[in-house]
Amino acid sequence: MELTKKSHACVRLDQDGRTLVIDPGAFSEPDSVAGVDAILVTHEHMDHFSEDRLRAGLEANPAAELWTLASVAEKVSAAFPGRVHTVGHGDTFTAAGFDVQVHGELHAVIHPDIPRITNIGFLIDRAVFHPGDALTLPGHAVDTLLLPVMAPWNKISEVIDYVREVKPRRSIDVHDALLTDLARPIYDMQIGNLGGADHLRLAPGEAATV
User: Fold this and answer.
1) How many CA atoms lie within 13 A of 156 on its CB side?
2) Full-model pTM
């Protein structure tokens, strides 16, 4: 399948004429959901979930469907009966021909004073794992780990250790809108040298075969 990086945490997967998008949030491009068949959302934070983006995608394609957790589903399910599916840890389903497993339950700790919300990760075709905002283990060997490289809830040592624990063949950066171009080479070097896996950074709009 082909993976296209969109801004921040959003990616699109294309295979055999089918398109799935994960986390088209407010930081992603307005066309992130254009022409999609399936949408997956990991949690309710605005950089991962944009209600306007979701509604636009579901309205543009009457056959498109959404899989997400309850806190997101309840905001749009009434407008799209039968097309919004609530899922959680341990669930499996098929979305636009992609086999999907759900892993994880809670968002990473931002600060002890901030209540934790739910967060789920998606393992696509047992090959590509998007953890959302957590360092969730996918429970299976994966070829490609979508790596949340920079967030208010992580530090680079945790990111490196996460790559080591998951042991993917390759990691590709996501959740990177907060990381400046000036600092990118430092992250590239340290994750690439210490993570134990190939490390790839894609600019928004760039694609890779996964």
Assistant:
1) 15
2) 0.97
